[in-house]
Amino acid sequence: MLFLPGNTPNLILNGDSLGADAIILDLEDAVAPDQKDAARVLVRNALKTLEFRGIEKIIRINSLDTPYWKKDLDEMMPCRPELIMTPKTSCAKDVLQFDAYMSEAEERLGMEKNSVRLMPLIETALGIENAYEIASASDRVVAIFLGAEDLSADLRCERTKEGKEIFYARGRIVMAARAAGKDAYDTPFTDVNDDEGIRADAALAKALGFTGKASISPRHLDAINEAFSPSEKEIDYAYEVIKAIRLAKEQGRGAVALRGKMIDKPIVMRAEQTIRIAEALGLGRGDE
Amino acid sequence: MSKLVKSLREAIKLAGLKDGDRISFHHHLRNGDYVLNMVMGEIAEMGIKDLSVNASSLFDCHLQLAEHIKNGVVTELLTNYMSSALGGLVSGGLMEKPVQFRTHGGRAADIVNGSTPIDVAFIAAPAADEMGNFTGKLGKSACGSLGYAFADAMHAKKVVLVTDNLVPHPLAMRSIDETYVDLVVEVPEIGNPAGIVSGTTRITRDPVGLVMAQTATKVIEASGLLRDGFSFQTGAGGASLAAAQFLKDIMLKKNIRGSFGCGGITGYMVDMLNEGCFESLIDVQCFDLKAVESLRENPLHTEVSAMMYASPDAKSAAVDSLDVVILGATEIDTDFNVNVHTDSNGKIMGGSGGHSDTAAGAKLSMIIAPLSRARLPIVKDRVFCISTPGKTIDVLVTQKGVAVNPARKELAERLKDAGIKVADIHDLKAEAEKLCGVPAGLEKGEREIAEIIYRDGSKIDSIYQVK
Questions:
Q1: What is the complex's ipTM, to 2 decimals?
Q2: Does residue B105 contact residue B151 with C-beta atoms inside 8 Å?
Q3: Distance from CA of B402 to the nearest CA of A (A)
């Protein structure tokens, strides 16, 4: 998922051509206070006019401690974005406050309840500690998102490329999200020109269990997509697992071994998940 | 014996320049050139009139030419490229006679075959000796290759070198030798180094440009042409350079050793040579200091004439062996005709240069252009003027998809097989118009302000004054 400042028409216009699965149209930090109105109007009109084929639209609105968030939601809800990202979410109460306001809007606009989902952005120490209650505060929440820049400021430590300072936060976010049955998204890597750095950072995020990773630059998208796409080998193995299970069922066998290893339930679940992702990426193998 | 004369005026006199003659200039000093203005100023003071000027390109620094046109010193212009300052004036009706635009290859061919004979060639020489051996590789005004000056030097009736760096005879590192040269003049400065070559050319940071560059690279990969022996040319535009950069990464990763890189050469092409992507560089013009240095130091980086680069009359030219060329466009139409001569208001701001030559020669000629610029769609029903005919263009790469010339069905299939989003060019046009609206067309006036002469010498289009 790619952050695009809400006041950059040329980038927004090309949002579906930059290689991201989702775009985050930003009304918050990327937009100066005197540009908030302009960005809101631009994003609203972009959502109404542009198709963004095959791209998920996420709007990062302003936080609860600003005078903008209600106006942001007033303008955005009628455009029916897939997701709203709420910055500086620190506790379940924050989620419920957004949730209630969005529910009212949905009712007023005749929209299905919870049709616009929430992705709280967790970027304070308190938010990290409350990650599980945030993730499970509402059915509207589908994922939580780690924001490392504000977090490291809150932690009073330096934000580094290696990211040692956010290691706990990353683990905590993934743990909380999975415990609540939700997805977890990793913070962007901020050095636009460091191709090796983004590869390593994306690989780490994938290894920790994140569902995906955000980017502030289209240049990073290839590295992120590569890290989060299952490899040929993983896809092959996943199909083998499913095939072995099917054969075992047909032959009425209980225990199944593949390549000398017992296949248990978690392996099957992981295989199914790999195939789901592969198919979504057009890497599926049909009815093999 | 010495060919050195005391002053430019003496050289002009000794060359026998008279009313109605044709003189020529090369453009290797680009926007830093002092020589054209210096020579024209002297000629005007001498009272010579009605000259034809054949300059391989004209930049904003040559705006003084407008005065000489108004005063009748210059009554005919032949060039391959004209930037917007003079272009705007010409578009406003500055000249009685239409400007003749040629291609780099076509200009050289027409000088060699006598269609456009030159009476006196004034050649800026960054290093020269008193007998007329000269090069662009040395000196404070070094510009690298002097590719476009070869035809002029070899075929003009009289050749005058203008140098700010007189070196002892014989200049060993000569590009063109004394057998062609009549007179040598030393002047304090032939150009402003800051305008001659850019310090560095940079790849684009614009995400849309990078997306197009990435797609262009995928198209090249999918075309089947990227293999050992691959040959390649790209322009110095940001997205084209980015494509070269991506291509280099792929070639290094896959251990592909190309044959040659061609054209106007930038530091990026030099890097490709040095890192083993090519066996050699064929350099008709240097775009930056790194290219100049490489041409001077590396024997595999070779200087060639415009004839060897692209002449359609030559027995063969480098462009005929090109696999892939990446080009730009100000407009392209649904028949793949490309305009690189005028802006969206129909005003002259460019020219073919090597555009048509490389498009005709390369196996895969690719245009990179965004679907719209400044809220104007780039794909049109009909371009304002045809610089390069659509039959020589194979692919248009935009940020929203790739259009393949219908004549290249097998290429379209290859691209689709590689997972590249191939679109009908009409659909790309419709998509741009959906976003930008359909712009009001330009109304062509009666007056022809320029003729576009294709590389084979035929006139393929005219540029008319806009009403």
A1: 0.72
A2: no
A3: 12
